[in-house]
């Protein structure tokens, strides 16, 4: 292979003429010619010496210094910088190059190329021949040693080149690792570095084909998520001016993003710009927004600004009195305090704060109590008016019976009317203690799988725990999208774990609607799962509890079972079901869900 790449032939004459190695820098040709002579010798000892020469760190360092890397840009219009200048890529060749770059050196099969390059109905008469033609044209443009041809597809060698997609991924993983170590300023700088790689135009601008359209949508979501991440870090670091300035621009460009709006409200509030924050909230309110978190925050802002709540009754005797700052029932944070918890985002990436659901649940409960009180006062006023007219109002049933009418329940109150169910998924490295880079790589892998699943930020919570990332799906949210994304997406992503084995477990819990009484509905036995992974050559195992398997996998929809019936196999002790995933980009048996 090296001979073919350096000389254009795999059968040179021995001794190798260094002048034939015309694809190498002149200063290195004699060294590689000597190494090839040794490797082509019939003597095993000479072959060993040749191998040592090729692996000489000094030679590799000189080769790296002499190599002029290609520069690929996909976070904007697709461009390629070659040693002799920018490449002129035809439109259809750009579509092929984009698919290869998105695979980061892994093979793209002919079938994947067929569905990714052309829309249904627009395919050429012979897709395989057209793909071959495009690949030859791309190889001519990029030069030798770049495009690898296999029987089942193509791959692009970019390990020694610059690719902004890879650089962005590296910076985000380093930011995750810095955040886990508490280095928030460093994490902010790394996220800013990742955002600086993006151009003004949308990613893969001008690249045709279904694969490019899908990737473009995902990359745009990633960019917005990075802006959210940086704004959160600004707020934690106390950079309220910087956060407000950036978020105001983001809101103008993306007024539908509730995470940007909430972060902007908090930034303005921390600056004491409550009136401006109210204007930002009222824009959202007038547009029909009904987010409980934003509604609660808007109520708090109005109370701080000493304005009456819009939905209060018009009579002065029924106006809501402002809550004193420090009153026991107040859920309003002081203007100079950052509320505990993460800011809800549209994309499930990490956040440097803790959970604040309880705070906003309290605010929402308080709002509901205020509404009930206002309705009761309105009914009382109406009854008095009827009596003044000589009319006797009908007897009224109590909307909320007083404490003296309540009976002490035998069980918690939420048991009487409802319980909730939610699915959980834990991603754990199976080979003992790991370093921060491995934890960051795993965190990045999980966030990508969540993005692949298409889940909204409100549909799950991602928690970093010592045992590994834990995904808590919202009550009654289906686990099938995340399960499908995990099974389909793992084979191509396991390489970033550097050979570490991975255990993924899905199970269900039942809980009360007040957040108490959580109880697992049965989990797969950990020893049985470990035995399955140890007995195989697979790098990962995906495990389902028995109840979740029958709810999500075996359940038939309108078009039949959601998953192939042979995708999962039962554990030896019948506590769950498992699916093995091999490393190196090779999916395990029955991994194709299409």
UniProtKB/TrEMBL annotation:
Region (Disordered): 304-354, 385-416
Protein name: Bacterial transcriptional activator domain-containing protein
GO terms classed as biological process: phosphorelay signal transduction system; regulation of DNA-templated transcription
Pfam families recorded: BTAD (PF03704)
Keywords of the record: Transcription, Transcription regulation, Two-component regulatory system
UniProt keyword annotation of Coiled coil present: no
InterPro entries per UniProt: AfsR-DnrI-RedD_regulator, BTAD, TPR-like_helical_dom_sf, WH-like_DNA-bd_sf
């Amino acid at each position: 292979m090296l001979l073919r790449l350096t000389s254009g032939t795999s059968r040179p004459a021995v001794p190798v003429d260094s002048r034939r190695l015309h694809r190498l820098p002149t200063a290195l040709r004699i060294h590689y010619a000597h190494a090839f002579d040794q490797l082509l010798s019939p003597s095993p000892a000479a072959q060993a010496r040749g191998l040592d020469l090729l692996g000489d760190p000094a030679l590799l360092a000189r080769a790296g210094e002499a190599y002029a890397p290609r520069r690929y840009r996909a976070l904007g219009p697709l461009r390629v910088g070659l040693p002799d200048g920018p490449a002129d890529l035809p439109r259809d060749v750009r579509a092929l190059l984009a698919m290869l770059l998105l695979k980061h050196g892994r093979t793209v099969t002919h079938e994947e190329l067929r569905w990714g390059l052309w829309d249904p109905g627009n395919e050429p008469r012979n897709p395989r021949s057209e793909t071959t033609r495009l690949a030859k044209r791309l190889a001519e443009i990029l030069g030798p040693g770049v495009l690898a041809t296999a029987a089942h597809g193509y791959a692009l060698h970019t390990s020694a080149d610059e690719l902004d997609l890879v650089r962005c991924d590296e910076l985000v993983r380093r930011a995750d690792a810095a955040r886990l170590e508490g280095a928030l300023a460093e994490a902010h700088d790394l996220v800013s570095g990742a955002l600086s790689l993006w151009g003004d135009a949308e990613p893969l601008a001008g690249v045709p084909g279904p694969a490019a359209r899908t990737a473009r949508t995902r990359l745009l979501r990633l960019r917005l998520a990075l802006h959210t991440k940086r704004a959160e870090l600004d707020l934690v670091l106390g950079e309220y001016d910087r956060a407000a300035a950036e978020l105001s621009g983001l809101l103008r460009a993306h007024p539908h993003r509730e995470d940007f709006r909430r972060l902007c409200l908090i930034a303005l509030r921390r600056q004491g710009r409550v009136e401006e924050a109210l204007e930002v909230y009222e824009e959202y309110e007038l547009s029909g927004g009904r987010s409980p978190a934003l509604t609660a925050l808007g109520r708090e802002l109005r109370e701080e600004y000493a304005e009456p709540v819009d939905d209060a009754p018009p009579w002065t005797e029924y106006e809501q009195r402002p809550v004193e700052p420090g009153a026991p029932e107040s859920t309003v944070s002081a203007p100079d305090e950052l509320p505990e918890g993460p800011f809800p985002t549209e994309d499930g990436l990490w956040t440097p704060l803790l959970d604040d659901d309880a705070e906003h649940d309290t605010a929402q409960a308080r709002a509901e109590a205020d509404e009930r009180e206002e309705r009761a006062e309105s009914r009382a006023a109406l009854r008095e008016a009827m009596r003044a007219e000589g009319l006797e109002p009908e007897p009224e049933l109590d909307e909320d019976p007083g404490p003296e009418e309540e009976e002490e329940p035998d069980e918690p109150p939420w048991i009487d009317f409802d319980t909730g169910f939610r699915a959980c998924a834990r991603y754990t490295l199976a080979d003992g203690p790991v370093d921060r880079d491995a934890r960051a790589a795993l965190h990045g892998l999980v966030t990508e799988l969540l993005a692949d699943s298409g889940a909204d930020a409100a549909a799950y919570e991602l928690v970093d725990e010592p045992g590994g990332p834990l995904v808590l799906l919202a009550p009654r949210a289906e686990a099938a999208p995340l399960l499908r994304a995990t099974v389909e997406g793992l084979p191509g992503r396991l390489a970033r774990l550097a050979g570490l084995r991975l255990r993924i477990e899905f199970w269900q819990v039942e809980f009360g609607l007040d957040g108490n009484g959580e109880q697992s509905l049965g989990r797969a036995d950990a020893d049985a799962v470990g035995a399955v992974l140890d007995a195989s050559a697979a790098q990962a195992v995906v495990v389902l509890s028995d109840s979740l398997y029958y709810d999500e996998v075996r359940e038939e929809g309108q078009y039949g079972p959601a998953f192939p019936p042979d995708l999962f196999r039962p554990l030896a002790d019948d506590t769950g079901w498992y699916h093995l995933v091999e490393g190196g980009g090779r999916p395990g048996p029955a991994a194709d869900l299409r």
